Amino acid sequence: MAGPESRYRLLREVGRGSYGVVFEARASSTGAQVAVKRMPCAAPESAELALHEFRALCSVRGQHRNVVRLEEAVLQRTEPNRPAAPGDFHPLAAREERRKQEPHHLELVESCLKGRPSCPEPGWTCAVWFVMEYCDGGSMNDYLLGRGGPDPRLNRAFMGQLGSAAAFLHRNQIVHRDLKPDNVLVSCGLRGPELKVADFGLSKVCQGIINVNRLCFSSACGSDFFMAPEVWVGRYSAKADIFALGIIFWAMIERITFRDADSQKELLGIYVCRGQNIVPIGEALLENPKMELNIPLKNKKFVPEDVIDLIRDMLAYNPKERLDAFELEIRINQVTYGGEGD
Prior knowledge:
Elements: H1 4-7, E1 8-17, E2 20-27, E3 33-40, H2 44-59, E4 70-78, E5 89-91, H3 106-113, E6 125-133, H4 140-145, H5 152-171, E7 174-175, E8 184-189, E9 192-197, E10 204-205, H6 229-232, H7 239-254, E11 257-259, E12 266-268, E13 271-274, E14 277-280, H8 281-287, H9 305-314, H10 325-334
Antiparallel strand pairs: 1-2, 2-3, 3-6, 4-5, 4-6, 7-10, 8-9, 11-12, 13-14
Binding site for ATP: 37
Keywords: ATP-binding, Kinase, Nucleotide-binding, Serine/threonine-protein kinase, Transferase
Domain Protein kinase: 8-337
């Protein structure tokens, strides 16, 4: 099989991080615009991220308009000291397709990426290439901050889209665990901007679990400013995703930002000020569960009461008192914010 570089013309780099590199590309045969994400798998930790992304995207492939669509995934295994060749690339099949496309099933992928006996000899390089739909609006963070002040109708539309995506993922036993504006993409189409939840490297596909809200996770992961209080202590459920969405909604509605200490990038997010320091809301609530959340921070006339109540219920300190994704979807459809909504 030819590699992604031969079947897709890489046009430009559009994103880079510890996970890998994302390119804007075009399919050589059709000219279709796509995004190509290359995730190196040299270390067990990076291989685990690639596996999580692969499992999540394959399990819901193209089933929801607000979840980024996977076109194909390819495993690259190249021996040392030579350029990549067509035989180095192997198509990856989803779990439900593995009987049709043996031996490229998930167990072999796990074996190759995690360094088990069937993995190539030491020194070989492994990477997973994800070919996905291209989102021309960039990240939700960059899109909103590039538009200036708050936009009630757009905010209402984005709330509905994210609420629908979260309910869909939880209904399909997927907990994202790293929801934040930088992990949500924007596609600008004729119907207006559409959000696409992406970056599933920290997600969990909980197969066989009917209700993900009853499952307890212990590995604390995510981005500090969007982590629920219970995530900080390593005992949480899918409702941690709802807390993250509450932070996103609040920051989006009021365009509240902070500057990331490492990248110096301006990011949407809510925090508590302590002198010269800023503390994530989840961490502050963990230290003081009775802390009053001043929603909104800026202009009370600008945000309707039903939206304020919604965000409070999403940010409840006690997960038992917090909305789940299915309740959230219903509540968002009931709010009056933005007039007629989306």
